[in-house]
Amino acid sequence: MSFTPPLLHPPKPSPLPIRHIAAAAEAAMESMETNALQVLGLDDNMRMVTKNVYSSLPDPPVSLHAPLAFAAAAWPPRDGVDRISALPVDILRDILSRLPARDAARTSALSTRWRRLWRSAPLVLADAHLKHTGRAPGPDELDRTGGLLLRAMDGMRDVARMVSSALAAHPGPFRSVHITCTPMDAHRSELALWLQLLAARGVQELVFVNRASKFDTDVPFPATLFRCSSLTRLYIGFLRFPAVATVPRAASFPHLRELGLCSLIMGQRELAFLLDRCPVLENFEIVCHRELLRLRVASHSLRCVEVCMSIVEEITVEHAARLERLMFWETCGTGGVIDNVGGIIDMRTRVKIGHAPNLRVLGFLVPVMHELSIGNTDIRAGTKPTRRTMVQSVQMLGIQLKLFDNNQVRMLPSFLRCFPSVETLYIQSETTLSGNTTGKLNPKLLQETSPIECLQKHIKNVIMREFRMQRSELDFLKFIAERGQVLEKVVVVLTHTCSSSADRLRASLSTFMASTRLANEDCKLIVYESPFPIDATAWCFQGAFNMSKDPFDVSKCFKDGASCRAD
């Protein structure tokens, strides 16, 4: 596969502010990561899976880019006195724990006191930092992306050796260890050693993702993982999870609050065993699971569950008193019927909601594909709402559907009636695999619908994403606007493919809404373009764990990554 580096136009030689250089360096590194996946020969499916897995991971707590530090270094004290070394030991240790591992280790050369400090400060290690030089490239270097990429790839060969050295040299504790750039298939002996050191040093945060080049990569993860009982956050990816038979019965993660399972080979027995050994787990995500998934949620601690891009037979919420968010995206089962509208296989997933009195956010439900059950009642088209078939606590609902598919639209009112207290409704408008949206919605399906409580009394905000100005979408928009008595805002997000005609479409939508008899005349229409491609995820993975923010609002995901992170 040939590689053509992207064109980066270098700025003029005049001095640039440090923040601009750092931003350009970060963009260059991100571009290099994307191109490196192509150089390594990954096919389209593997690139997509890799992209989704890595976008779901938390950032390391330290960064190579520190513009404030660079700015401070430009104004050293005039008297030349080293005031930093005079600070109390505890403060110096805290400073060192906020530096990349290589920079923190370099402070040992300053003096005898600093040599002892690094070994006593909590270690923060990210192998991604080890493969770079640690400095931002200057303005005259930013056009040599090809050379930077080759140097980065050469550095990857030594990453495993440097990780081994760092883990062995530091006595602990390990505050955070992120290993995401090392191909573990070639370093299986190091994998076993690292797990032993991590367990012995009391690692608190571990992100361990095998840099796999093939989807069928099968690298066993040592059962030594279960000795890391000090873990509070754990993400593992592109590995085979230890079999239950190899794990001590008394093993557990008594302090683990956040867990991410990313493209794992992991059976149902192992998944159930793991969840049962996490008594205080609050945040849980599964991304690109490599085996058939049956997820049973029965926990007194879980607050947020995310399941994305996986083959899921069933998601069952049995008893989850603290569960606030149940989120899934691109989840389908293993069998079903042929969808005549799109010519694709409609694979069903059962979604069962039992006792979840604090469930506030649910989505994205797909009518027909997701077979919804509330309590012991299966929800079907025309199901009459009763107290037993309603989840009163849900305030934000996401639904993904083809608005030109009469079967899906016929199910929509029944879904909405199950959640009478919804205040914010997200609609993800879908096409077929071929992009066809020529199907027409039977207007009687909406016009003859009996009153829907949430639509008439509670829904204040409706957000329609991937809007293409199809007739079926306009009909649905009119249906909502004419019945939403307390509707305050309708947000239409035009699909990325409509960006060239956004102004014209915005004007057409305004004219259309002006001709509609609004149930609430104060309702406002907001139209903007999608800032990211159509294949972007439905939410920010890490942002969903922040209970104070709207998890489905992805408008800032790719503009300000920090705004999407959990506090």
TrEMBL record:
SUPFAM superfamilies registered for this protein in UniProt: F-box domain
InterPro entries referenced in this protein's UniProt entry, alphabetically: F-box-like_dom_sf, F-box_AtFBL13-like, F-box_dom, F-box_dom-containing, FBD, LRR_dom_sf, LRR_FXL15/At3g58940/PEG3-like
UniProt xrefs under Pfam families: F-box (PF00646), FBD (PF08387), LRR_At5g56370 (PF24758)
Domain of life where this protein originates: Eukaryota
Record domain F-box: where: 81-133
Segments passing through the bilayer: none
Protein name: F-box domain-containing protein
